[in-house]
Amino acid sequence: MGSTQSALNFGAGPAKLPREVLEDVQKEFLSYQDTGMSLIEMSHRSKEYTKINADVQTAVRELLQVPDNYKILLMQGGGCGAFAAVAMNLINRTGAADYAVTGTWSAKAAKEAAKYGEVNLVFPKADKPGSIPDRSTWKMNPQASYVYYCDNETVDGVEFSYIPETNGVPLVSDMSSSIMSKKIDVSKFGVIFAGAQKNIGPSGVVVVIIREDLLGNPMKCCPSVFDFTHIAKENSVHNTPATFSVYVTEKVLQWIKRNGGLDEMAKQSQEKSGLLYGAMVASGGFYSCPIDEDCRSRMNVPFRVGGGDEKLEELFLQEAEKLRMHQLKGHRSVGGIRASLYNAVTLADVRLLVQFMEEFQKRHAKQ
Ligand SMILES: *Cc1c(COP(=O)(O)O)cnc(C)c1O
Questions:
Q1: Is the distance from CB of 169 to CB of 147 less than 8 angstroms?
Q2: Which keywords accompany this UniProt record (predicted)?
């Protein structure tokens, strides 16, 4: 029998979800609202799923205060599917798009978009990873169909602290790992998308928020399942959606609402990440973060141990595992340690991590 006690999960995605939500799902798993059927056995055209589909859209609209002239879509294909979908739906206007590449995911998005049109990188690939070149230095193409950036680079730990100005060109943002962690002014965006499995649900569903005037111009090659205009028209039930993922996501959004909404999520993510970055400063260099201070992520905190001593980092991970602190390994492309601090991760979880870091340093730092 496995333990039912929850571990300390610092995973980057799929990631920790609120225990309360999982228990709720468990409770109604065999019989959804006394129907005698599981939700995952029900038609996506049933009245039960129709309500979930409506409720999840309402919750996104309320939490992010999405204006009336935006549609909310629930799609599949993951964040990577959205990289292609964004290009196929938007690049047609002028055939070109601007991309700000600040890390792994925006680099992939730019590469994907280049299959469909001309991609201009607004600054050269950062010679120093872990920084965002000042907005005044970006070389924008005034003819771009849209300007694309990733609000929070999950792998690299780089987060924008502002919304880039685009002089009227529609702005597209990948918010997969930062959505619902802070308030945002949706009216500044053309499109926002987020794969749910980082901060708001299980894998399988992507939330897309799109300004209505950007609909209606997909490329001919765009598959119907990726066609924002078509999905909007079909109210996100063009074909079978990931019903279970949407259902759990709806529950997570209600949990956020019950727990103080985005003001509270923002406050807590400041506290949690502040505690961890503060601990690094206090360690006198034993723990170090390679990211510029003005763009350090509140959601994914990468750090090195002993100046990047891989043996010591391996030991750090092993000892952490023994304390049931899981999924702390940095992404395979960057190495080191990464602690992801999504909404469901508590301040108490982070305190335990920091305590472990202090003890580990005492035992292993070279005197
Ligand atoms: C995880 C992630 C993706 C990729 O999502 P998939 O669902 O695995 O395709 C894209 N962008 C960001 C910011 C991510 O964190």
A1: yes
A2: Amino-acid biosynthesis, Aminotransferase, Pyridoxal phosphate, Serine biosynthesis, Transferase
Which of 211, 240, 258 terminates a domain? The answer is 258
Pocket of ligand 1 (CB under 6 A): 13, 78-80, 105, 150, 154, 174, 176-177, 195, 198
Residues 242 and 291 grouped into a single domain: no
Per residue in 244-269, pLDDT (tens digit) is 999 999 999 999 999 999 999 999 99
Full residue range of the structural domain in which residue 247 is found:
22-258
Is there a contact between 116 and 218 (Cβ–Cβ < 8 Å)?
no
pTM: 0.97
Identify which of 106, 154, 179, 200 to mutate to test ligand 1's pocket (most ligand atoms within 8 A of the CB).
154
- Residue 288 CB contacts under 8 Å (≥ 6 apart), including other chains: 280, 303, 304, 307
Give the Å distance between the CA of 37 and the centre of ligand 1: 32
Tell which of 223, 258, 293 closes a domain.
Answer: 258
Active site residues: 105, 174, 198
